[in-house]
Amino acid sequence: MTQRTGGRILVDNLVAQVCDRIFCVPGESYLAVLDALHDTREIDLVVCRQEGGVSFMAAADGAITGRPGIAFVTRGPGATNGSIGVHVAMQDSVPMIYFIGDVGRGDTDREAFQEIDFMAMFAPMCKWAAKIDQAERIPEYVARAYSVAMAGRPGPVVLALPEDMLRDTVEAVDRPKVIRPAQHPDPEAMAVMMELLKDAVSPVAIIGGADWCAGASHYFREFAEDIGLPVACGFRRQDAIPNESPVWAGNLGYGPNPELLDRIRGADLLLVVGARLGEATTDGYTLITPDHPDQTLIHVHPDPEELGRVYRTDLAICADMREFAEEASLWEHNIIDFDCGKEAHAEWEAWSTIEPNDDLALDVAQCVQAARETLPADSIICNGAGNFSGWWHRYWRYGGPVCQLAPTAGAMGYGVPAAVAAALRHPDREVIAVAGDGDFLMNGQELATAVQHGCDMIVFIIDNGSYGTIRMHQERHYPERLSGTALSNPDFAALAKAYGAWSETIEKTDEFAPALERARAEKGVRLLHLKIDVEDQLAAGTSVAKVRAAAKA
User: Fold this and answer.
1) What is the pLDDT of residue 335?
2) What local confidence, expressed as pLDDT, does residue 104 receive?
């Protein structure tokens, strides 16, 4: 063993865990780490412009790779700014490690400059929060952080790093790469599941969520298509299997197909794989109630603490998603094909087919159609929160795992940082950030990060001069009493050019497709500013007038 600083030990152990990228805003509290990174070729340091962008990028990177995305922020303001990404990583069930430079150990509990009790602050929103007080124990803490972040239901870990600890020079024994252990489903439980499916008349699967991966997608698709099982997905899990599958039934969450909702209500068996059945997926725990009378619930999840946590579960199977899906696809069964899979897919096809509205100057639905006809099937669509996302949720055809990066926590400002993470991780694929005007300005400054790091990505801004989702709820509850939801926006195309991006403004439907072709012919960051009227397009398929009329009915 040789003497090393705590900063050097930390970086060496991140390298040992095959960390190849760190997202950060630099801070004086972890200068020893930045110094160690100066001599490390294995790690790409992505310097962001605000800590919210840092944590969103790390959360997105964890979602893409299946191993923890790594974020570094400084104490106090830095940690609080970036806390939004920790919350997203928890609700999205993706692995992430959030390192916070902290005050020196000798100043703890004095309310020193920017001091916060990070264990108390982050404990409710992460899987584990701790402080490393001894530099020689850094390998232990880093290995444990990786293990906890990936185990069971993946999620974020928060580690505070006292700045004087990072400067200590000590001897330490590095830990090897942590591998998530495989967890196979119980064979008896699998046999029971097959018997329950054999007796079912109108089953539905709801998939996507914790531990979902390409292998789970491949094998579950094989299984579902083999027996004709309709496959829906949880909120913002639309890339769980390719939407071209003949049993794909569509998405749950906000603005789903009413026929899919009827199918869920009428199902006699629900096979839930990976999903937690959260509030958005279940429409406030009403579409599927916690006691779900007259429905059999089979719940498959990698974390035993999620099984039976909210829902009465008739059959609980604790297993890795890939292991379960592969076992199901290979299982010998005599289940007669269900006709409902093809029926559900036909209903989704009808629901996701665009009906052009030429009365609109710029019809967002037709723009999605044009993008769908132009962009590759494996394009990665990244969006934050807002009614603008509804057009993509309804009309886009997702090509399979890691084609959708969207926060189930409903956080605004996620799309652009997520697109930066995706563009760096997959420079060979088309990456699209979709944002509303209010959503974009939450983290639009990360265009500077994208340009600085040479990202190839396209940004669509749907600008209606409003916090549209809140305006919609406002019109439902207080029609015609507009308050606090109108926005005065910059010229987004000019703003993009100021950052060094290529850009155009679009105000008519027929301008979109040629502009997209011009954008694709360019390299780097490209931005298309789509201007629409909130009165005519408050959300996909509705207007302010329609919402007001329904509220007064």
Assistant:
1) 87
2) 87
Cβ–Cβ < 8 Å for 526, 502: yes
The beta strands (E) that lie in 394-493 are given as 404-405, 431-436, 457-463
For 24-72, the DSSP string reads E---GGGHHHHHHHHT-SS-EEEE-SSHHHHHHHHHHHHHHHSS-EEEE
Topology adopted by domain 4-170: Rossmann fold (3.40.50)
Q: What is the pLDDT of residue 61?
A: 98
Number of other CB atoms surrounding residue 145 within 10 Å? 28
CATH number of 187-349: 3.40.50.1220
Amino acid at 297: L
> What is the rounded CA–CA span in Å between residue 55 and residue 500?
24
pLDDT in tens, 514-530: 999 999 999 999 999 99
Q: Are strands 4-5 and 169-170 parallel, antiparallel or unpaired?
A: antiparallel
Query: For residue 283, how many C-alpha atoms fall within 13 Å in the half-sphere facing its CB?
Result: 15
3-state secondary structure of 1: coil
Residue 529: its H or E element: strand 525-531
In terms of DSSP bridges, do strands 4-5 and 525-531 run parallel, antiparallel, or are they unpaired? unpaired
Residues 6+ positions from 193 with CB-CB distance below 8 Å:
271, 298, 315, 317, 328
Q: Quote the radius of gyration of the chain (alpha carbons, Å).
A: 24
Instruction: Decide: 274 and 212 in contact? Cβ < 8 Å.
Output: yes
Left (φ > 0), alpha (ψ -120 to 50) or beta: where does 405 sit? Answer: beta
Q: Which CATH architecture is the domain 354-552 placed in?
A: 3-Layer(aba) Sandwich (3.40)
* CA 2 distance to own-chain centroid: 41
pLDDT in tens, 58-112: 999 999 999 999 999 999 999 999 999 999 999 999 999 999 999 889 888 888 8
Tell me what pLDDT residue 115 has. 84
Average pLDDT of the residues of the chain: 96
Give me the pLDDT at residue 314, please: 97
φ, ψ (nearest 5 deg) of residue 41: -80, -20
Which helix (DSSP H) or strand (DSSP E) does residue 101 occupy?
strand 96-102
Residues of the chain with pLDDT under 50: none
Domain ranges of the chain: 4-170, 187-349, 354-552
Q: What is the pLDDT of residue 108?
A: 86
The distance of Cα 544 from the centroid of its chain, to the nearest Å, equals: 29
What residue type is assigned to position 507 of the chain? E
| DSSP assignment string, 158-218 | EEEEEHHHHH-EE--PPPPPP-PPP-PPPHHHHHHHHHHHHH-SSEEEEE--TT--HHHHH
- What is the pLDDT, as a whole number, of residue 28? 93
126 three-state secondary structure? coil
| pTM (global) more than 0.90 | yes
**Cα–Cα distance, 189 to 496 (Å, whole number):** 55
Interstrand relation of 21-24 and 69-73 (parallel, antiparallel or unpaired): parallel
C-alpha–C-alpha distance, residues 328 and 309, integer Å:
24
Q: How far apart are alpha carbons 291 and 309 in whole angstroms?
A: 12
